[in-house]
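Study the following:
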Amino acid sequence: MTGRVQLVIGGALSAVFLVAAAVSLVWVPHDVAALNIADRLRPPGGAYPLGTDQFGRDLLSMLMVGARSSIAVALVAVGIGMGLGVPLGLLAAANRGGWLDELVMRMNDLIFAFPALVIAILITAVFGPSAVNAILAIGIFNIPVFARVTRGAALSLWTLDYILAARVAGKGAARISVEHILPNIANLLIVQGSIQFSLGILAEAGMSYVGLGAQPPTPSWGRMLAEAQTMIYTAPALAILPGLCIVLLVLGLNLMGDGLRDALDPRLRRAAR
């Protein structure tokens, strides 16, 4: 599969869920907070295109709002990781071998020692479970990821001739990082952002599954899976549908990331020609 095909397929899959999440901001077929026991476990059809759950809630509406919750948490968390990690990586690369470089890298190692779920448990133990705390946990874990990627890419540029020319011209390390280093590693950061976005979707689903993410009555794909595990034989659609949404969205984002890598990497473009 070529990079262009991957980009088209991944973009189309991702767009479906992004549109569903955007539409859910202004309209859903049914109120996701309303319980209607008389309509519990309805099969697909009529007023309920995908059926209802054990509480009579419309599955289509819950999946739409769940997409909004998952995408919002992952997007903000990646934004936090990129917004803090990229400057730290540029700072470390500009002071390569110095104490600032060592400090940033050791801080990254410290955060890497605690997976996102462990960070979430620590945060929720103090502040309680919520979508905001899930964002903080995933965002904190993303900071060293972007810092390492940025530092590694920037270090390879600091020895190039045009950077040496900029230093000779009197430009400081901060100005060189912003004007010359960052634009030349932006494509790599975009690709890494799409990868972390898909990982953020998985992390949010896992945290919601164990009760650390968005709290009721806000729907979440992970919590829908947790609530459906006792009904897997009587109503398998309750588990299959949110699981399928997670798989398709993560697949779409990963394909889009691979396609973006091929499209933005000049070496791969030249090889394709």
User: Anything to note?
Assistant: The chain has a mean pLDDT of 89.
